[in-house]
């Protein structure tokens, strides 16, 4: 069973679909509103939809220099 899982993971890691999904995921980011203390995951945002205040973009793991295990 373990070999089957390894083969599946190896196939997915080199699949063109996997690259497309990675690109789509990397387009989103975390944005937080300090006023209403909410966090949003979206492609882009300048104002909080709830209260209208400016939101702050939170840095990603890659921007912080942290590795992400897959």
From TrEMBL:
Compositionally biased tracts (Basic and acidic residues): 14-26
UniProt-annotated stretches for the region Disordered: 1-26
Annotated protein name in UniProt: Small CPxCG-related zinc finger protein
Species lineage: Archaea, Methanobacteriati, Methanobacteriota, Stenosarchaea group, Halobacteria
């Amino acid at each position: 069973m373990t070999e089957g899982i390894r083969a599946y993971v190896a196939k997915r890691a080199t699949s063109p679909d996997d690259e497309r999904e990675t690109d789509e995921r990397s387009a989103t980011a975390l944005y937080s509103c300090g006023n209403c203390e909410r966090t949003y995951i979206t492609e882009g945002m300048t104002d909080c939809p709830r209260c209208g205040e400016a939101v702050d973009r939170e840095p990603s793991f890659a921007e912080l220099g942290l590795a992400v295990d897959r």
